[in-house]
């Protein structure tokens, strides 16, 4: 039973950064913007969060720094694509490459340094309940924030007027502009929110998941978060389910190696990425499902009439 609980705990920890980053990207794409720079924003959030936490000794300041760094990095993308109307795909890929290189340079002095870890919650009387106590009442704070964030985004997109406006921009920015909606303003806010979420996900990696700085420690999670949005058909609750499925695959291959299963470790390490490819291929075969919720203006530049 202890082994099972430990595995479930590690799955939740592995799924949390995927969920936070994917929920942020879902809001961005619902506004009609395709930001492929999630990986770059995550790794910058990781190094910014670790650096601030290491220098101040406070993991909470580290998380705040991770959010700010992610938001600022996304602002660079927003200026390029929304104000200067550059190609969103090329700009997002460039943002990822910039983030990977810049984080490696900034984090050189942090390699091998002891980090500060965000402690798990401990609720007297509840955390000590067998099995359920540790799973529900003994997680790290970002686990609860990720669940609350998913519920909040679901409510915002489908229950508020502002969320309806954001979705209408993603479906037809020209029609929204004709109705007097400030398309660029909404998209700026959506992109910054997505960047803040990606930065927070990166902060989770360096302050909770592995409280230290390792170059390229995001290890492709930003790309998996992008795939999760498509996997979920742009629905928040499906992102939640998908994040835990991918988290289970990620942790499953680690435990398989630890148990000495006679399969090459390289193959086991590739399982999360293979699962991502398989899921995308299966989804692409169902064009009705793919087109049903896809924002019609996704990836299309918008230049308002002067």
Give a quick set of tags describing it.
306 residues; mainly alpha; ABC transporter involved in vitamin B12 uptake, BtuC; 14 helices; transmembrane helix; membrane
Summarize the structure.
The protein is an all-alpha fold. It has helices at about 1-30, 40-55, 60-85, 90-105, 130-135, 140-160, 160-170, 175-180, 185-210, 220-230, 235-260, 265-270, 270-285, 285-295. Helix 2 crosses helix 9 (about 185-210).
Secondary structure layout plus pairing:
Blueprint (H helix, E strand, L loop, with lengths): L1 H29 L7 H19 L2 H25 L4 H19 L25 H6 L3 H19 L1 H11 L1 H6 L4 H27 L11 H11 L4 H23 L6 H5 L1 H15 L1 H7 L13
Helix pairs in contact: 1-6, 1-9, 1-10, 1-11, 2-3, 2-4, 2-9, 2-10, 3-4, 3-9, 6-7, 6-11, 10-11, 10-13, 11-13
Question: How would you portray this structure in words?
Answer:
By secondary structure, the chain is mainly α. It has a single domain, classed as ABC transporter involved in vitamin B12 uptake, BtuC, CATH 1.10.3470. The longest helix has 29 residues. It is globular. The protein starts with a helix and ends in a 13-residue tail after the last helix. The model has no long low-confidence stretch (mean pLDDT 88).
């Amino acid at each position: 039973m202890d082994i099972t609980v430990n595995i479930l705990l590690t799955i939740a920890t592995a799924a949390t950064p995927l969920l936070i980053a994917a929920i942020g990207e879902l809001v961005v794409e619902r506004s009609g913007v395709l930001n492929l720079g999630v990986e770059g924003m995550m790794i910058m959030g990781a190094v910014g969060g670790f650096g601030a936490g290491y220098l101040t000794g406070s993991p909470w300041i580290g998380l705040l720094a991770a959010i700010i760094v992610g938001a600022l990095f996304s602002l660079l993308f927003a200026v390029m694509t929304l104000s200067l109307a550059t190609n969103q795909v090329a700009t997002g890929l460039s943002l990822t490459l910039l983030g990977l290189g810049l984080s490696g340079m900034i984090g050189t002095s942090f390699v091998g340094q002891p980090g500060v870890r965000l402690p798990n919650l401990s609720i007297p009387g509840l955390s000590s309940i067998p099995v359920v106590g540790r799973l529900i009442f003994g997680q790290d704070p970002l686990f609860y924030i990720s669940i609350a964030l998913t519920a909040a985004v679901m409510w915002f997109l489908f229950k508020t007027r502002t969320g309806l406006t954001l979705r209408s921009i993603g479906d037809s920015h020209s029609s929204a502009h004709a109705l007097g909606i400030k398309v660029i303003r909404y998209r700026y806010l959506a992109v910054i929110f997505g960047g803040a979420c990606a930065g927070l996900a990166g902060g989770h990696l360096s302050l909770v998941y592995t409280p230290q700085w390792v170059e390229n420690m995001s290890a492709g999670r930003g790309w998996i978060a992008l795939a999760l949005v498509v996997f979920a058909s742009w629905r928040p609750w499906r992102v939640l389910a998908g994040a835990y499925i991918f988290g289970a695959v990620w942790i499953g291959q680690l435990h398989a190696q630890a148990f000495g299963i006679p399969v090459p470790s390289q193959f086991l390490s590739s399982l999360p990425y293979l699962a991502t490819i398989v899921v995308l291929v299966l989804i692409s075969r169902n064009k009705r499902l793919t087109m049903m919720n896809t924002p019609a203006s996704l990836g299309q530049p918008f230049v308002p009439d002067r």
